[in-house]
């Protein structure tokens, strides 16, 4: 198993874990973390695609730009979660409170 396969399998695994947590968790901070895990998986896939005999700088530049965008989007999402928590008293959306599949023991 070469390095490209390890990057691809790890990236796909992180994407699957992120989608799983995004769908099953109602807590908004956990959803933000799931989006960050999915982003990390996508970055690993891009780095793996850019590696090879002659490294391609375009995927590397895309990953660096994506990291900057991810940090900014995470800060915005966490600020919105704080506003929702201050307004409603719970860090969940009203439609997610009824279909909460995994967070009963955490609240």
Folded structure, characterized:
This protein is mostly helical. The protein has a single domain (3-102), classed as Helix Hairpins, CATH 1.10.287.3510. Helix content is 77%, strand content 0%. It is built from four helices and no strands. The model has no long low-confidence stretch (mean pLDDT 85).
The description of the largest β-sheet is:
none
Got a strand count?
0
**Radius of gyration, rounded?**
17 Å
Provide the helix percentage. Answer: over 70%
Question: What do the pLDDT scores average to?
Answer: 85
Name the poorly predicted regions.
Answer: none
Write down the domain tally. Answer: 1
Could you say what the CATH architecture is? Orthogonal Bundle
Query: What overall form do the CA principal axes indicate?
Result: elongated
SSE pattern: HHHH
CATH topology: Helix Hairpins
Distance between the termini: 43 Å
Which class in CATH terms?
Answer: Mainly Alpha
Helix/strand-derived class?
A: mainly alpha
With helices defined by DSSP (H or I, 4 residues minimum), what is the helix count? 4
Strand content: under 5%
List the helices and strands and how they pair.
Layout: H1 3-24, H2 28-50, H3 57-88, H4 94-98
What's the gist of this structure?
This protein is mainly α and 107 residues long. The chain has helices at residues 3-24, 28-50, 57-88, 94-98.
Keywords:
mainly alpha; single chain; 107 residues; Helix Hairpins; 4 helices
């Amino acid at each position: 198993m070469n390095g490209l396969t390890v990057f691809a399998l790890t990236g796909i695994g992180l994407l699957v874990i992120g989608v799983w947590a995004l769908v099953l968790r109602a807590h908004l901070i956990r959803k933000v973390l799931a989006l960050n895990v999915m982003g990390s998986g996508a970055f690993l896939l891009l780095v793996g695609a850019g590696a090879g005999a002659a490294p391609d700088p375009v995927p590397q530049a895309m990953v660096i730009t994506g990291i900057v965008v991810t940090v900014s989007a995470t800060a915005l999402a966490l600020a919105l979660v704080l506003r929702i928590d201050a307004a409603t008293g719970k860090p969940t959306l009203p439609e997610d409170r009824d279909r909460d599949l995994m967070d009963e023991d955490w609240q």
